[in-house]
Amino acid sequence: MIQSVPITDEELVAYLDGALDLERHREIEAALAHDELLAARIARLDIDTDSIRAAFGAIEDVAPVAQLRTRLEQDLSRMRRVRQWPRIAAALIVGAGLGLGMGLGPAFLAAKDWRVAVADYQVLYTTATLASIGGDAANQRGEVATVTGKLQLPIAVDALQVAGLTFKRAQLLQFEGQPLAQFAYLDQAGTPFAFCVTRTGNADSEIQTGKLHGLSAASWNKNGYGFIVIGGTQDETVRRAAVVLQARI
Amino acid sequence: MHVRSQPPRLRARRDNLRQIATLIRSTDTVRDGLDRLLPRLWRFCLVLTGNHSTADDLVQAACLRALEREDQFEVGTRLDHWVFRIAQTVWLNQLRADKIRRGRGLVPVEDAGLVDLHAESNLYLAEVLSDIMTLPEAQRMTVLLVYVEGYSYKEAAEHLDIPVGTVMSRLAGARGRLSAMRDKANRDQG
């Protein structure tokens, strides 16, 4: 038997992986049928790739996802979209100049808008971020007192309760040197929502709804503070929550 | 005569619309996708660095880099491949910087049993994992990309910036070593 082209180990691996072209695959298949040496070589290279996949699948299960997510959130809130968002805003403003109609006007999605920063943060939330948190009323009262103290806007825990949403925790964040309060909620389906407040100095404005990063958002201004409710994809849900919160705070 | 071309104003408007759509879509895609990708990205970084806390740091650095460059992500292409590539680049730059700083080369995996799987998980799988983690970095990364992440040889070659032939020889080398380890384990047991 004359072997046409010598078969390399690399080709045997590609044969095992099904990565050879059909012609070469058949040549090797034919050679294996009667070449014991070749059969021994391929046996040495034949390993159980299914168990490799399974073993590595187990690593995913032990990945410290919650920690990674928290660190990422912290860095993101520091990072602030200095590079990307002004460009999007600029594009939107040019678009507006050209008479382009979009669901959200440039006023809603402007550069350095604290609400965009909130949306940047909120898109990283999942059910698991909040599922294991909250429930302890005394803790919540303490959190809310600390956060609203920094904000210099008294808000009672009771005023934060919204039908259909479970209040999970209050956190103090910061936007461009200003304290920003974040009140986190989960709905019954596990969708994360946030109610955020910061001092803006803006004139009072009515509730405005729209999408930010694909999330439903409702925002308004009152007494020099800006407010936003954000989460999920149902505009009506955030608008209803906004109406309730606007009336109380 | 440019009878068929659009008026410049219309064209500008259309281009602007496209630009906005691309920017908004790519940022949404990257942010949403990164969160889902975290377990796999951590695994990738763990195999790459061979160390838990370094893997944590690398995930962080890669995510931030990806978010900084999110408008460079082409919608419709694979986000996982894009982010893995970023992690790989960040790591190589880090190694290069370390090498210059401390005058030393690649860091070997010091502890082959560095991945503690849940106690209830299969011991055989834990052994497979530990064997792979003892492979030289070049081989274990190629094994991860091709056999775990499902990269084609060509995709793995592009990711690692090496010829396809080198991908194949690394896989052959890895398979040879793994089967030698398996044989030795069998002999030890028998």
Description:
The complex is a heterodimer of chains A (249) and B (190). With 249 residues, chain A is of the alpha+beta class. Chain A is built from ten helices and six strands. Chain A has helices at residues 9-16, 22-34, 36-45, 49-62, 65-79, 84-97, 114-122, 127-131, 137-151, 235-248; strands at 165-175, 178-187, 192-199, 205-212, 215-222, 225-231. In chain A, strands 1-2-3-6-5-4 form a six-stranded antiparallel sheet. Chain A is elongated, with a radius of gyration of 28 Å. Classes of the chains: A alpha+beta (249), B mainly alpha (190). At the A-B interface, α1, α4, α5 and α6 of A face α1, α2, α4, α5 and α7 of B.
CATH superfamily of the largest domain in chain B: RNA polymerase sigma factor, region 2, helix turn helix motif
Strand ordering within the main sheet of chain A: 1-2-3-6-5-4
What is the terminal separation of chain B in angstroms? Answer: 87 Å
Average residue pLDDT of chain B: 79
- Parts with pLDDT < 50 across at least 5 consecutive residues of chain B: 102-114
The chain pair with the largest interface is: A-B, 55 and 60 residues
Largest sheet of chain A: 6 strands, antiparallel
Q: Any idea what the radius of gyration of chain B is? A: 22 Å
Structural class of chain A: alpha+beta
Instruction: Report the sheet-strand fraction of chain A.
Output: 15-25%
Number of strands of chain B: 0
